[in-house]
């Protein structure tokens, strides 16, 4: 398949290049960057020197790039992918958007949370979380790749919501992310003296991933869910640990919780069930497309606590995009994604 990466110099774009270099059925034909047009990608990311020295192009040639590609991976900030989708809506090229433009069933929700008018609201799109929407992804023209916090949190809670094992009004998600999730652009809050030896919450009660988590969980149970989500920034480069709390429904036992996780994920290669009492860690999934899940039952409070660890740049972004690409092409879902996690 001929694939192109729009926005190849962000962290997710560079990670896509790394993964696609090892993919036997993907040929990267175009890469773009408005900041580094004309430069080889290996000059921006020297770790790719001698491995991928392709020159960066401008997005001004999007019709030509789209016409020369089977798939476009779009790694741009919110508000840009929709313009590409609109420009190429009559082209056969398929799009995987690593941003938020196509993640929501209802574009009014997107506009409310992102404060951006959606220019392509009529586009048919599918939410790109493979473990929940695999069937729809196969034939989709536009796939809205699931976000990083959302992937970790949805996968943690999905079995409990699907089987009606929790009070959905009681869900609280406390998640921590490495700083690469904030992107590559320079910001004071990401400046080394500000970040190092520090730990902070942000986006309390208004983080944009909140409605995305609510949408997927609502799809599973068939009724609207409202939940509490609080993200935190930790001084590491990559990784997410999401700790999810909920009140167990009356009569639900620990064994019933165990069975729900096993039943939902028994055939999912990228979901590693560490089991009841386990403590997943970000280093156990670093550089991989795995999501590690562990859960605990607090008999005293009647709550279940689920711990979910992913690499935000892989299962939370580029790896998930490649997984969706494989599904959409009819390839083995694991193709290009079987490298073991990096440790330590």
Q: What does this protein structure show overall?
A:
The structure is a single chain. This protein has 344 residues and is an alpha/beta fold. It folds into two domains: 2-123, NAD(P)-binding Rossmann-like Domain (Rossmann fold, 3-Layer(aba) Sandwich), CATH 3.40.50; 149-312, Dihydrodipicolinate Reductase, domain 2 (2-Layer Sandwich). It has eleven helices and 13 strands. The protein has helices at residues 11-21, 41-44, 62-67, 81-87, 107-114, 130-137, 148-162, 192-195, 210-221, 254-265, 314-329; strands spanning 2-6, 27-32, 71-74, 94-97, 126-128, 142-145, 166-177, 200-201, 228-233, 240-248, 271-276, 291-298, 303-310. The strands form two sheets. Strands 8-9-7-10-13-12-11 form a seven-stranded mixed beta sheet. A six-stranded parallel beta sheet has the order 2-1-3-4-6-5. Strand 3, helix 4 (81-87) and strand 4 (94-97) form a beta-alpha-beta unit. Helix 1 (11-21) crosses helix 11. The radius of gyration is 20 Å and the shape is globular. The two termini are 34 Å apart.
